[in-house]
Amino acid sequence: MCENNAVPEVSNGHDATAARIYGLALVAGVLLIIFGDTSPVEASGFVSPFLVMFEQRR
């Protein structure tokens, strides 16, 4: 067997933050569709740049 000393990302807290950010983006998209009278494509076009910026900062 191969010994791997890599530390999983879960231990440094990034996954919890990422889950929160993606969850909030999903909620924002749903709210845009329900209350903003936008289509799902428009809502995803609005939310996705924020997720890209988040991923680039990581």
Describe the fold and architecture:
With 58 residues, the protein is an all-alpha fold. Helices cover 69% and strands 0% of the residues. It has two helices and no strands. It has helices at 14-35, 40-57. Helix 1 runs antiparallel to helix 2. It is elongated, with a radius of gyration of 16 Å.
Kindly summarize this structure in a few lines.
Keywords: Membrane, Transmembrane, Transmembrane helix. The protein is mainly alpha-helical and 58 residues long. 69% of the residues lie in helices and 0% in strands.
Task: Indicate the mean pLDDT.
Answer: 79
Number of strands: 0
The geometry reads as elongated
* Count of DSSP-assigned helices: 2
Class per helix and strand makeup: mainly alpha
- Report the uncertain regions: none
String of helices and strands: HH
N-C termini distance: 32 Å
Fraction of residues in β-strands: under 5%
Q: Calculate Rg over CA atoms.
A: 16 Å
Largest sheet: none
Percent range for helical residues? 55-70%
Keywords: Membrane, Transmembrane, Transmembrane helix
Outline the fold blueprint:
Layout: H1 14-35, H2 40-57
Essential attributes:
single chain; elongated; mainly alpha; 58 residues
